[in-house]
Structures are given as C-alpha cells and as structure tokens.
Amino acid sequence: MTNAINTSMLGFVIGDAIGVPVEFLSRRELANHPVKSMRGYGSHNVEAGTWSDDTSMTLGTMKAIADTGMIDYKVIMDNFLSWAMGGEFTVDGDVFDIGITCRTAIIDYKETGCQPLEAGLTDIRSNGNGSLMRMLPIALYCHYRNISDEEMKEIVNNTSSLTHAHDISRLGCYLYVVFVRALLEGKSIEEAYEAMLQSDLLGYSEEAIKHYDRIFSRQLNDLTIDEISSSGFVVASLEASLWALLNTTSFEQAVLHSVNLGNDTDTIGAITGSMAALVYGFESIPSQWIDAIRNKDYLYGIVTNFTKIVED
C-alpha cells in the first residue's frame, strides 16, 4: 500500500485506531499518561488496532464508489445503514461508536423512506464531525477524476448532507477536501493551506463562514495548545487537526500530538493522519502501527477496489 490513496487511507485508519482507546479522556489525563504508541482496550474495551465509526463510514463511502463507479448517494446511505444496523464495515461486526446525528439520520432514512439527501439534520446543534470524518474518499475521487471545483463543492455538500446538512458542517467538509486535494496535487502544507483560504465560498452562509474565522485569519499556527479545542464540534475538530499538522514535523508527531489533545481523539487523529500521511509519505508511517491494524485484508480489499475505479 504505497500510492497516495493507500497511504492517506492508512494514515487515516491508524489515527483512528490510536485515538479509540483514549476517546473522551481529558487533555489533563493524557498529559499525565500520554499516548506514545498503539494501545488497546481503554474507553471502548477493544483490542489494539481496532478502528471506529470514522473508518467504517469512510469504507462504506469507498465501497459505494467502487461498486457504482460514481457518487451514488443512495448506495452510500444504504452502506451506512448496513453498518449501523448490521455491523458491516467494522473489524468484527461490533458497532461500538456512532454519533447521535449520524444515528438519527440513518434511522430516519430507514424508517421514513425519505430520499438520501433529505435525511440529514439541519439544526445548528447538529454540527458534530460525523460528516467531516468521512470526506477522504470524496477528496480522492474528485482529485483522480479531475472533478471541477464547482462540481466538487456540490458533491461535498451533498455527501455531508446525508447526515449533517447544516452549512457549518458542509463548509468544514469542503475546506478539508480542498486542503487534501491540494496535498494530492503535490503542494506543501503551507501551499495547501493557502489553497484552502482561496477556495470559493459562494453558497455558504455568512454565519457558517464566521465560525471558521480562526482558520481564515492565518493565525491558527500561532495559537497555543490552550487555545485549541478538541471537541466533536466540526469547527473544533478541523482546527485541531490542522493545528497539529502545522506544529509538527513528522507523521508520528502529528498523529500523537492530535490524539493527546484529548476528547474526540479518534476522529481528530484520523483526520490528522490522513493529511500527515500525504505530507510525509508511506515510509514515514511506523511499521509497528501498520502491523497492529486489525482486519487489514478486509480494509485493503475495499481500498484496492476503490483505487481501481477512481484511477481508471
């Protein structure tokens, strides 16, 4: 697994798995007992190398694209349903971590028979990171299929809206996708950040844009750790991931730095890992972390099929 798709996905899964055992722990608790390697058990009592909902929903999105050769929102949503209700796209059939907004949207989709793009929640309280955490396949698809910026924005907004349909969530997803796509084009961290700042925000509300002021101000890199939140709020999660990437110089440092922020450690670790893997490359990922990931054959199978489709 050495191409950009495999590398970014492996970085994502590793960040997820490293964060799982310490999810919900405070920054103070982790300062006293920092994560330095792949752990097991802890918050969810699972073996080391177990991935969570972040990877499951990402795999569900990847498989939908691999199976259809396109972005089919119904197939993506059906895969989410198979995951939430049937344990597909998990390590061992156990769905141990699912966000409230994702659960609500998926259940509504199942019980009401609504269209996929009508399932997402639109209230301002439903702006967790549950759509941001599954955007990596969308960035990869748009890059390798050479999708226009305008169409990319539509795809991002719609894919987020399957569960998170508020503009704050959709904008966070869009900024992440722009950043990752710039990295895929070979840009540096600084160049990718500038591409994100120069992205077309037409269509997003002023309210949503204002929530990302600290990113747009170009001051994120200079914030202290005490000024960084690591909550599940989509804005905080994107800020924390970018901040960890900007303030470290290796894949290992970036992932550990992000996870040791505490709280929503698996999602922030996964988002950071996906970006850091693209910046520093496959060789930067510690082999012992790769070895620890559970059910790799299943994971690699979906990623390989996705790669064949998007690179075709």
Automatic annotation (TrEMBL):
It comes from the Bacteria. The keyword Mitochondrion does not apply. The keyword Hydrolase applies. Mg(2+) binds at S52, D53, D54, D264, D266, T267. Binds 2 magnesium ions per subunit. Its cofactor is Mg(2+). Pfam families: ADP_ribosyl_GH (PF03747). Keywords: Hydrolase, Magnesium, Metal-binding. Transmembrane segments: none annotated. One of its GO terms (molecular function) is metal ion binding. Belongs to the ADP-ribosylglycohydrolase family. This is ADP-ribosylglycohydrolase family protein.
